[in-house]
Amino acid sequence: MEATGQPSIKPTFSxxxxxxxxxxxxxxxxxxxxxxxxxxxxxxxKKWLDEPRFLHALNFCMLLPxxxxxxxxxxxxxxxxxxxxxxxxxxxxxxxxxLVMLGLSLLYVYGRGIxxxxxxxxxxxAAVLVIVxxxxxxxxxRALKSAWxxxxxxxxxxxxxxxxLPFPLIVGGAAMIGxxxxxQVETKAADNDNAAPRRQGRWRQAAxxxxxxxxxxxxxxxxxxxxxxxxxxxxxxxxxxxxxAVVTFGGAYAVLAYMAQQxxxxxGWLSAPEMVDALGLAETTPGPLILVTQxxxxxxSFRDAAPFTPLIAGILGAALxxxxxxxxxxMWILAxxxxxxxxxxxxxxxxxxxxxxxxxxxxxLNLSVWFAxxxxxxxxxxxxxGIVRWYAFDPAALDQRIALLAVTAxxxxxxxxxxxxxxIGVMALLGMIARMT
Length: 437
Known about the structure:
This protein has a domain at 97-396. Helix content is 75%, strand content 2%. The chain has 18 helices and 2 strands. It has a two-stranded antiparallel sheet with strand order 1-2. α1 (13-26) packs across α4 (68-111), α4 (68-111) packs antiparallel against α14 and α5 packs across α17.
């Protein structure tokens, strides 16, 4: 059956509401697992969408900054029930995980110093290191399909690790290279044959989505600046994560490298080991992995609370981070969805996406090395020789216990193919035992 852009079997709004809440509660395992869950539910079981339409929607979401799984949910919701369907799907995909992450953040700040909590976090650090390496291998295998894409990945790694180039510059440069390097294989006529008829009123819908989205996006940040002053931590948090919402191409692991180094080294909101803890906690929650930003926003505000109490400031920081991360994400979909058919045949956009994904591999390699140094050696010093940045550490300071835990996590992941939740659970238990011995 030819895809028409409409659901194969149109569900009622209440049916869709229940389905999105269920997916929001069960969407563990990162973007790949979440997309697989949506495919199984929406395409295979419910038959609300056919396979070509699902894959086309996924490709569109991969072109955008932000969490692709949450954007895919928003797009499917919009396709079924318009704007209200997109809003409900996008919000319910995030909300359960956000509530769990807030609870974990509270446990983190109030439970530190308790042996069981510290031991669990110690073991989770080892699991996180292996999880990032596994993501590097998985994405690299999919993305580096040619020598020039491998060269883009290598250049991205050198740029961010040794030259400290800004992540947005790397993403923009990769997109430009991919756009220019990709040849238009099909003729304009063939492209027009592949494209679906243009939707009426698409410019009007896009204009309303952008106008309302931008207003909602920036209103809390503006209010915080007027009420608390432009230097307050909530304003800084709002501005920082708003910038991230624009440059988060390539998924959470890609932006995590940029966010980790900025949050740790530039802003001093948390330490490198705490950044590793943040990813470990995010891996244990349902919803987008980018919820790791919520933990960072919570800690930043909790530790610079005035004029609020630390608890209130932390909750406000977490809520503001969520807001400026996901309002833009939903806005991109509601503004761009009417044009999705016109984008389908554009090979140069596909080339730009391929180059961005290749650059992401280099960025995740940077993250892997950065995490490994801080997890295994603890005391790592950033050094500069001219324009070149490097990290100094003492090889004799290797934490042998956490190295052994990391090897164990690698065996569970690569040899026995255990699930992410299982690996984290086992490593948390082993971390408690290691700390008690």
